[in-house]
Structure formats: C-alpha cells, structure tokens
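Fold these two proteins, one after the other.
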Amino acid sequence: MKYLQSFPLHHVFFAAYPVIALLAHNIEQVRPSQAQRALVVAVVGSIACFLFLKLLLREWRKAALGCTVFVVMFFSYGHIYDLLRQLGGLAEAIGRHRYLLPIWLLAFGIGLWWIRSRLRDVTLITLALNIAAVATVVLPTIRIVVFEARFQAVQSSTVKQDIGECDVSIDPEATPPDVYYIILDAYTSGDTLRDVYGFDNSAFLDNLREMGFYIAPGSQSNYGVTGLSLSASFNMNYLDKLDESFSQPDTADWMPLWPLLTRGIARRNLECLGYKVITFDTGYYWSGWRDADVFFDPSSTALTKFERAGGVNAFESMLIESSAGLVITDAATLMPDFLKQAIEGPYREHRALILYQLDSLEKVVPGLEGPKLVFAHILVPHPPFVFGADGEEVDQSGAFTLGGTNEEMPFEERAAMYIGQVKFINQRISLIVEEILERSEPPPIIILQGDHGLDGPLSSQMAILNAYYLPEGGDQHLYETVSPVNTFRIIFDHYFGGSYGLIEDISYYSRHVDPFNFILVPNEFSTHE
C-alpha cells in the first residue's frame, strides 16, 4: 500500500487503458498484434508527458496527476465530439474543432494551475488513482487473455488431420474439375441494384450468361452477416443444425464459428478427394484459411507484386477517431502529403490487398496445378469505398473499419460510391472469369456469390448476386431462388457422387452486434415481374 502511495504509475495505466479496452471490444475481429504499436506509443507518450510536466510542476506526483488529466482528456475528446454533434442545436455548434479544441485546452490549463497552486498533498489521490488505474485495465485484459486462450484451443482443434473414408467420390479415369468459390462481399441482386440504387446491371449479368453462367435472380443469402453466411455455405446447412449454441439469441459468442469457417464440410470433402486448397489473405482474419496448401499472403509471397501502404493500421485509425487525434484526421487535407498518406494508410492498404487478390486470381491461380478448390473472399463492393468505377482511388475520411458501412453518409452519396465499386468489380471479375475459362481443362466449376446485401428493406439486404458456371449439365439442378446453403449440395451430388439433396432456402437477418437474434426474411421473388 505504501508503494502505491509513493510511486505514481496511474498515468501509464490510464494511457494504456483506451488501447486495451478498444482491443477487448473488437477482439473477435482484430488480432492483438495490430494493437502493439498503439500500446507502445500510448505508454511512451504518457512517460514523456510525465517528464515534461515534472519540469513544469517540479513535483513528480503532481506531474503524474497532470499527465493523467491530459491522458483522460486526450482519449475522451473524440467521444465528446461525437456526442455534441449527435445532440444537435447549440451542442452541435460547440462541437466543432474551432470551438471545442480551445475549450479543451483552456480546461487542461486550468486543471494544471489548480494542481500546481491549490493542491498541497496528493498522496491519497495518488493511492486512489493507482488502484483505480490498475483495476480499470484488469477487466479488458482478462477478456483478451481468455479469448486468446479459447482461440488458440479452437485453432489447435481444427488443424488439418488425416482424412479417412470419403463421403463423396470421383471417377478415377476422369480429370476432376477445379472449383472456384468467389465471394464478392455485399454484392446484391440485379433487382435491388435497379430498385434501390437506380443502377442497371444487366450488361454484366448478360455477359456472364453469354459465358455460360446461370444467374439465380431471386437468390437471398441465408444469413445477413458474413461469418454466419459463409459458415452455412461451407457446411451446407443452417447454423442451428450445426451447433445448438447458435439457436440462442442472447449469445454473441463467435468462437464456435471458427471450425465451421476454416474446416467446413465442403472443404473437407474436396481435400478427401485430393484437391489442393488455394486461398487468400483478406484482411478479415476469420475468412483466411492460413493452413491452405497455397495461401496468398502479400507479406510473405512474391507471386505477384504488392506494396504495403504503411502509415497507421485499421486499429490505430479507430483509436485516433475516438481521441483528440480526430483533430489531425479532420485536418488531413491541410497536411503535407506524407502525413496525409500515413493517416490514410488503412484505406490504401485495403485497396492494395484487394488488387493483390484480383491480380493473383487472374494471373497466377489458373496456372496452378489441380485439381484445386479456390476460395476467394473479396471485400468489394462492401464498404469502405476505395475504388471508383474505373478503379481510381477514392478520397476517404474517418476511421477505417472492415465492419463499417459508412451509414453516416447521405444515401445518395453512399449509393453512388457503392455503384462505383460494383462497376469496378464487374470489370475485373469479367476478365478473371474469361482467363479461368480459357486456361482450365476440364471446364471448371465457378460460383460468383454475394454473402449478403447492403441497403434497403430487409429483403433487399438479403438479396445477393448468385451466379453459377456448372458445366456438363450441372446447371439443370439450379432454380431462380436457390440460396448458398444448397450450392455445395448441388455440386457434390452432380459431380462427386453425393447424396445430400436440397434443403429449404431460408433467410435469417441479424445485426453484427446481435448476430444470433434472427429475423426470418421471406423471399418475395414470387411477386417478381
């Protein structure tokens, strides 16, 4: 206890807390390694603040107290800024940097004056703050440690193992087809593009039809969240049939999804038949199969050119947006180019990663020896919007997040940027498909599929692009409202001697923050004209 009274460490713990708390809140989407640099900067910054104030206040416990005041004010600035803007009226007017920042600096100055001139003995304050700071950091740290322990245990349990007898088969005299499963994140249906976004996508869809694709115009995703949607697709069934925990609406535990995403039945079946697994780093950790036979990771492969964008990462961008760093990002247009590029780093790296995926899928993957299962989860046309219609860069502002959907934008602006990315990916996917078809022998199986929609009523948010290239009569099993849960059932039954059969096409909507609280979304395509 005497140590806690004598040695002020609270400023260090309070500086670490925003980083640790943000990581704990996003631990299911963010790897701890992404927070390491932010944690070091926060701790070192608090120590530098302490040393500076020690020179100014001439008493180390008062310097620590002043530093804690600064840290709390710095990391709360963004939250206060957002709150004032949400309140509207006079509060919104005050919530502009030109007013709020001077008020903030004045308040900090008054606080320092009070600490230096009015406080006599800060021993008890030091004790209280030390205890409070340590206690504050403990809870989110425990959450991170527990999650990581569970995560490592689940990863270990899903390591690729020797496969016994296969549930499916291939003709030993025939060359099995390559299977391409290409997910275009948040790519909605042609009807939704027309009715909600005012965009006619018929040229792209007609081009696919000319190449031999079947387009399911009334297809809906089975789930409205990526992780849930892909889990159902790869396991050819609904989540409550795969794990009873998914039928409990009050849970938000994503951990049981990990083995369903990474070692799903579809993957295991094809591996059992001798297929190589080819996949990509996506920036979305949960859909990256890092134990694949070929994993296209731009940080470790030279198969295609990739330049890291540098600058802050996505986690750091979120942290900046909740702190006084928001002043810097909002003034990015006034900064030198090198600072602006550093702040925009997550957007540029996201863009570079998608280009890397597309270039690899077009130029490298078709030439890899088969048979192969190629899984490409491409985060376009999903926000953030980093591509214009012709692939040009798009100016961005605000914190980068893969889960963000730019909902604060006026719909007209948001719709225009979404359509820009639809046009871009249409061009690239058309070229990729042409290349795959030209270089594949025998003809491949290709699925182009959205994992969910984006805007409009629930039926539109569940509506998806669902296009199949199933040679040698495989398309005879398809129909207008076929959904992803039946995709691999059809493929295994027609090409690999399976006996899965079709199941009912059902759509369940839920939000990412409340993933297992489902709303049944009927398919209204029966009224389609």
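Now the second one:
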Amino acid sequence: MKQFLTTTILLTTGLICYANSERLTKRMHRVDFSQVFIDDAFWSPRLKNNAEKTIRVCIDQIENKTGRMRNFEKAAIPEGPHSGIFFDDSDVYKAIEGMAYSLVNNPDPLLEQKVDEWIAKIAAAQQSDGYINTFFTIQEPQNRWNDMDKHEMYCAGHLLEAGIAYYKATGKRTLLDVGQHMADHMMTLFGPNKRTWVPGHEEIELALVKLYQVTGEHKYLEFSHWLLEERGHELGKINVRENIPWDKRHYQDIYPVKDLTQIYGHAVRAMYLFCGMADIDSYIEGTGYMEALNRVWEDVINTRMYITGGIGVAYMSEGFSEPYDLPNFQAYCETCASIGMVLWNHRMAEASGDGKYTDIMERSLYNGVLSGISLNGDRFFYVNPLASHGDHHRQEWYGCACCPSNVCRFIPSIGNYIYGTSDDALWVNLYIGNSAKFKMGKQNVEVEMNTQYPWEGHTQLTLKKKLKGNLRLHIPAWSKTFEVCINGEKAEYKQELGYAIVSHKWKAGDQITIDIDMPVEYVYADPRVKEDVGKCAIQRGPIVYCAEEIDNPGIFESMQISATTDKWQVKQDNMLNGIYRITNGNYNLIPYYSWDNREPSQMKVWIDNK
C-alpha cells in the first residue's frame, strides 16, 4: 500500500490571573540546555564547528567585513552614514546570543571579552530615553516609531533575547539592562490608551515573555499580550516611510490572532508570531490562542509543508500561496523558517504533551535546519530548495544575514529539545548522546544517554540516580516497530500521543534501551502537490535523502525508482563527515542536509517513480 502525504510529509494521525502566572499551564516543561552536556557522534562535531567556525565567521563579518559593529560606534556620537540594512542590529544581537549559549558549555575567556567589548559599544549607543536602533539614530532620527515595518521592535526583541542569554551565561547584566530600558521606553509610547502598534516583523512578543520570566515583572507579559491583541483590526495602518499601503497579509494582520484558521504571509514572521502566542497562552487564561494554533498547525502540516519540514515558496515573498503549492526548484524554505518550525513545534509539544509536534520538530531539525549550514560550519543557505540545477550554493554571508546569525544561536542551544519533565514523568523527545543533571519536581535527576541516532535506532538511557515517575519515550511517527527493555529484559509499556510510557520502580543504575527500526521508506506526495505527481522520495529514520549528480553521473536526469523492484542497501561512508549512504546498486542517495558540500552539482529530493 502506498503511503500518501498531504504535503510531502508523513501523515500522522481574557482574564489575566497574574497572581498565579508563575504556574505554567504546560503538560511538559523543558530541561534547559545548560543542564545537558552533549557527547554525541552526530551533534558534538556540529557544536564544535559552531564554537570554532560559525561564531568566528559572524564576528569577522560583523566587525570587519560589514559595518554592523561600526554602526553602534557611530550611533554613540552620532554621525553617519549608516551602513547596511535598517534591521542589521539584529544580527549583532543574535550573534551575541549564540556566543552566550556557546560559553555555557564551552568557557572561553577571549570570546567573553569580545562580547563585553561589543556590549560596551551597544550600551553607549543607547539614547537617554532608552531608545536604541542604529539606523534611526544615525540616519533618520525624525522617523523613529513612524513605520511599523521598519523592525524597531524586531531588533528590540533580539536585543532582549541576547541580554537574557548573556546574563544567564555570565551573570553580567549590562546588555539585559539595555534591553529592559528599551522595553520600558516602548511601553511609555504604546499600550492601552496610548499609541497603537503592530510590529511588521514579529519577535518582540516572545522576547517580552522571556523578559518577564527573568525579571518577574508582569508588565512585560501584559505588553506582549497587548501587541498580539492589536493584530487584525482596522487601524488605518500604512508604511509611512514609503507611503505605501500596509500589507496586512504579509504581516499576519488580516484577522485577530485568536481567529486564525490558516497560515498566511511571511513564513518566519508567522513562526515567531505563533511562538509568542503559545508563550502567552501558557500564562494567560482565556486567550483562545492554543485553539487557533492547533487550527493553523493542521493547515501548515497538511497543506503547506515540504518533506524536509521547510515552509515557504520563493515567489510569494518568502511566504505562502494556495494549499499544496509546493514547487521544488522554487521552494524557499528559509533556514530561519525551519528554525522557527522547531521553536514553534517544541512549544506546542510542551503545551500538549503530544508527540505529533515532536515529530515535526525532529523533521525540521534534521533536514530543514541542518541544510542551512555547511558541514564545515562556515557557509550558509538562506534558501533551501528541494531541487537544483547546480547553481544554488551556500555563501559565507548575505546582505540580509538573518540566517547565519540565527544558526549561530540555534545550534548551541540544541540541548533544549532533548528532555522534558512533568509532575509524574521524565520525557525523552530527541535521541542525542548526553549526560544531564536537572530537577524534576523536588527530585534531582541524573541521566546519561548513548546513541548512534539518527543513523541507528538503538538508544540506551542510564539512570544515575533513583527516579520516581514514568519514562515517556518519544516514538517517531515514521517508526513501524520498536522495542523497549529494562536492564536487558523486554519491558511493558503503553502508548499515548506518540510516546511509550514505561512504568517501573526505578533505581540508580537502571538501563533502559529503546530500539526503533529504521528501514528505507518510500514517501509519496499528496496528489494535489502537482510537481510531485509520479514521483517519490526516500527517507530513513528522521533523515530525508536526495540525489546529487556528482554521485550519479550520466544517469541523474533519467533516474527512476520503484518500491516494488528496488532493493536498497544502507552503507556507512566516511565522505561528507560520515554519513549513511543509501544505494540500490545503480543510484546513490545522500542525506538532504549534506548536499552542496562538494563541487557544484544538480540535486533533487523527488525522483521519478517507475
């Protein structure tokens, strides 16, 4: 029987109580990456590359090859001209956030000194009223807060995230103070009975929730909620600076957010909007946000998402057209949008405890996100198509460099997504080798995980301390068979919402193994995806595969595969930093994330089905 995918992805099946807002309404609470030390054959080299190469690329570009850091120096005077795009400050902030995350598990006095130097320049650029944005300070001071699409709140959101990250990593709060001063400045201008405002690019909403979590000041939660509630109302908006109409679709401003049923507009902005909605819903009763997010999620997953977990098409301004419009060569699948898919789906999993969100998080992570950075960690994709004529390549930087700086901050925080806790259970969401120490309720938990995932489905979890509660082990939707054992003996479990629930009287030293079968699988697109009619794709475990012409010379154009006749072998290979290659004797396929890491070559994910 054929497996059909509606979007080239496997189908699987108010009132604000601020006095109690510290009690989150979440099924599962994340274990922070600072409590997880990753030691993993797949992920450790990527973390090393991020610390030694990706961060260095960002520093070099920001300090030497672009004017991003120089803009802060100019803003402190101020003098012109401004260099680059009006939102370039955000790249500096995201790079600092990535550097802060890297310092948590990779202490580096020289890197910390570099961040301190940058922070001093940023603090000097802040104006006395708290405002900070180098473009407007240098170039157009008269146009401050005059155009809702000029990313002032977007940049402020990334400033807040960077300040919070660095404060948590080092205890130094200068950048946090700068961000908080900016937030307070915004709240003097905008809010109930003040000026209305809808940020053209969302980000501030989720950042304000983080600021609340750090400071405990409810006003930041209220302000985030107010900004979300501003959307979808006729407020006479206009892009004042260019004097052009406000594009309500592009900016997710057609409907009040609680009434959303479909995704529309710019993909990255939508992801950050949904993250902010999920965050606020976990604190504030009666928003209706989670109901809306579930409706939108069904639309995204069933009609708008690529097999890689990427979203967005090129000719729709980095956003969405009609359902099932998923072209391969013109797939946009911005790296930032795939990161956003991980952030959003992780929040949905936390809120519900439902493994279907963890499935999408994993899919986007191993395919959409990892494609965005080279195996060496020093070149980047902004756009991640599913087919190429051999003319699409990673670059060392972009004029709009949101993706390199976003990867820089995402990779070192990967530990955020492995574990979760609830009152009665330890949740295992991703299988990544690590050792971790954290709290689960009042008890201290200490665990160690060993695995060869994503290449092999065998994982061993060792309890270093006695544990009270269940284990909830994520069973990916692509899994057909699996087995759980305790100390070598087959264990009983029950399944619920994509997790195997294992009950036991746990003691220190217990070893839990899970073996998930990873056969080579054919995946078929929904017939309404016109470009993939008569084609199929190959997936093994969480990894989507593709064909590059360099591995299939002379036959790339004529490739045809069939589930009824082809017998695939899985071969461990040293090329491309160590991959599991798939071959049927005639054709060779490699993981999608690893394409374009050699000489220029044609590529395709969807192959003709004979």
